[in-house]
Specification:
Layout: E1 2-8, E2 13-20, H1 22-25, E3 31-35, E4 48-49, E5 55-62, E6 66-73, E7 78-79, E8 86-89, E9 96-101
Antiparallel strand pairs: 1-2, 2-5, 3-6, 4-5, 6-7, 6-9, 8-9
Length: 102
C-alpha cells in the first residue's frame, strides 16, 4: 500500500494516488476508497484493478488538510493503508482510520 503525492502549482491541490497492493486486497474483485473526501460514501470511488492485482485510484484533494480514509473490499472487509501519514481512532471501538496529509 502506498500514497503518492504530487502538488499542483497552478492550483491549491494535491494529486494523491492511493494504492492497495494485491496481498491485503486478497481475492477482492472490487475495492472502494472511502473517506472524508466523499462523505464516507461506500460506492463513490471505485478503484481500478491493475494486471498485477493491485488496486489504484488518483484524487485531487485540497492542500493543507487531513483526510481520514479506508479501503472497502467487496466482501465487506475494511483495510487501512499501512503507509498512511498517520492513524486516528475511528468511531468504531478498536479500529483506526488511515490519514493522508495534504
Amino acid at each position: 500500500m502506498s500514497l503518492k503525492k504530487q502538488y499542483l502549482k497552478s492550483k491549491s491541490l494535491c494529486r494523491v494516488t492511493f494504492r492497495l497492493e494485491k496481498k491485503p486486497a486478497a481475492q477482492a474483485k472490487k475495492v472502494y476508497l472511502v473517506g472524508d473526501f466523499n462523505n464516507w460514501d461506500e460506492k463513490a470511488n471505485p478503484m481500478k484493478k491493475l494486471s498485477n492485482g493491485d488496486f489504484t485510484l488518483r484524487l485531487d484533494l485540497e492542500t493543507g488538510k487531513q483526510y481520514q480514509f479506508r479501503y472497502l473490499l467487496d466482501d465487506g472487509t475494511w483495510e487501512n493503508d499501512w503507509n498512511a501519514d498517520q492513524y486516528v481512532s475511528s468511531q468504531f471501538p478498536g479500529t483506526d482510520n488511515s490519514v493522508v496529509l495534504t
